[in-house]
Amino acid sequence: MASARRVASIMLAAMAVLWAPSVSADGLLEENWYALYLMGQKAGHQHETLAEEEGPDGPLYRTTVEIAFTVKRLDMPMTFAIETGILEDATGQVREFRQSIEGALSFVQEGRREGDEMLVSRRAGGVPTVSRIAAHDGLGPWGLRCLQERMGLEPGTTYTAEAFVPDAPGLPVPVHVTIRGQEDVQVFEVRKHLHRADTRMDLMGGLTSSTWFDGEGTVWLATVAMPGNMTLESRRTTRVLALGENDPADILAASFVRPDRPIPNPRRVKRLRLRLTSPTGEAATWGLESGPFQQVEAREGGCEVTLRQATGSPERSYALPYAGAEYADLLQANVWMETRDRLVLRMARKAVGAETDALAAVRRIEAYVREAITGKNLSLGFATAAEAAEQKAGDCTEHAVLAAAMARAAGMPSRVVGGLVYVDELPGTGGGGFGYHMWTEVFVGEWFPIDAALGGHDATHLVLARSALNGTDELFMLSAAISRVFGGLAVEVLEVE
C-alpha cells in the first residue's frame, strides 16, 4: 500500500518542477498522458491536466493528476485508482486540495485553507474526521513551475524550494533542483533533444527524480528512484497506449532483505544479534531506536542490533482502564482505529472478558485477533480496524491495526510498529530473509509488543518506526521511515539463541 500511495505524491511533485506553458482560450494550460513503468514493467498510466480558473482575488491554477496503478504482492495484483487535485493562487499558495484512493485501500482526504490554518477532512472507510492544522507556504505544482521559469534553464543552475505534498499537508517538503542541460532522449518511437532537471525531495530518506522536457515545458520522460532499488518511470504517449495492458512488478519480493545466513526456527528465537551495514560503506543507523527489546550500537559502516523476545513485567501492569495522562491521546479513536465501532467494541469485550489486568488482557487480544482474522491473505491494502473486523481478512497490517483498536477500546494506549521480521521463506524469493511487517505495541505499565499475525513477538522483529496513525501525516512518516532501509541494507547474523 505505502508504495502505491507514495507514487501519487512523488510523481505529482516530480512532474511539477517544469516550465509554465502559455494559456489556451478555454483555460486549459496542458493535458498529458503517460505510461507508467515500475522496475521496467508497465504498471499503469497517468493523466494530468493543468487549468486556469477565475478566483475572487485573481486567477487560480488547478493541477489534477489521475493515476491507475497495479502492483503485485507475492503475485497477488493490487490496483489503485488515485486522484489528486491541488488549487493554488498565482503565488503558488495552496488554497484547496483533495486526494482520493480507491482499490485495495479506500481513502479520501481534502483540505481548505482558512487564514493561517488548513481545515482537513479525512475518511478511510468510516465516518470522516475533521481537524485543523497550521498552514504552511510550501508551493504547489503551479508555484514550482513558475519558480523554475524564473530560475531559468542554464546548466548548473541550482535552487531549493519548499513543496506542498498532499500525503502530508502539514509538512512542507524541501525540494532541491539542479538543471543539467540538454540531452537526446528516446521515448517509444520518438527521439527528442530535451532539457533535463534533477530533483531531490527531503522525504522517505531522500527521493531523487529526473525529468526531461521540451522548450514548451512538456515532460516527455520522468524517472523516480524508489525505495528498494526500484525505479518508477513515466513516458509520454497517447491516451490509447497509456491505457494499454499492464505487466505489474512484485514490490514485496523486491523489498526482501536476505541475511548472510539463514535463521532456523525464527518464531522460537529468544535473542538475535545482527550487524547492519550500508552497501556504500557510510556510517548509518537508519534512525533505529533502542528500547527494552531492541538495542542499537553504532559501528563503522552501520550498526549492531540486539533483539530480544518480548516478555512482560507483571509487576508493572495495572488494573484496567489506564488512568494516566501521559498516553491519554493513544486511547482516542481516529480514522484508522474506530474504537467506537460496534463490532470493534464487541470483539474487544469478548476478547478481554472479565480480565482486569492489562498485561493479561493484551495477551488475550493478541490471541483473539489471530483467531478472528481467518482470511490470512494479501487481499486488503491497508484496511481500517472496522473493515478488518467486518471482513475478517488481511495481512499483518490488518492484524496490527485491529489489535491496536481493540486495545484502545479496552482502555489501553496503543500504537502500531513498522519494521522487518524474518520469515523462513517468502514465495518467489528462493529462501528466507527479512520482509516488511507491522505489529502492535500496547502500554501495560511499559510498552509491550504483540504480533497477532505471527502469534507472538520473537527476537527477529526489527523496529524501524512507530505510529499512532493519528492522520495521514503519521502514516506518511511511518512509510518514510520504513522505506529508508530498502535497497540500502545488508544484514549479517552474529548470534542466534
Structure description:
- There is one protein chain.
- This protein is of the alpha+beta class.
- It has two domains: 2-243; 267-496, C8orf32 fold (Roll), CATH 3.10.620.30.
- It is built from nine helices and 24 strands.
- It has helices at residues 2-16, 141-151, 239-242, 251-254, 342-352, 358-372, 385-391, 396-409, 472-483, and strands spanning 28-38, 41-55, 58-73, 76-89, 94-103, 107-114, 117-123, 129-134, 158-163, 173-187, 190-201, 207-213, 219-226, 230-237, 271-277, 294-299, 302-308, 375-376, 393-394, 414-423, 433-443, 447-450, 462-467, 490-496.
- It has a 14-stranded antiparallel β-sheet with strand order 8-7-6-5-4-3-2-1-14-13-12-11-10-9.
- β10 and β11 (190-201) form a beta hairpin.
- α5 (342-352) crosses α6, α5 (342-352) crosses α8 (396-409) and α6 crosses α8 (396-409).
- The protein is globular and about 70 Å long.
- It starts with a helix and ends with a strand.
Gist of the model:
The chain has 497 residues and is α+β, with helices and mostly antiparallel strands. It has nine helices and 24 strands.
Which tags fit this structure?
single chain, 497 residues, alpha+beta, C8orf32 fold, 2 domains, 14-stranded antiparallel β-sheet, four-stranded antiparallel β-sheet, 9 helices, 41% strand, globular, disordered N terminus
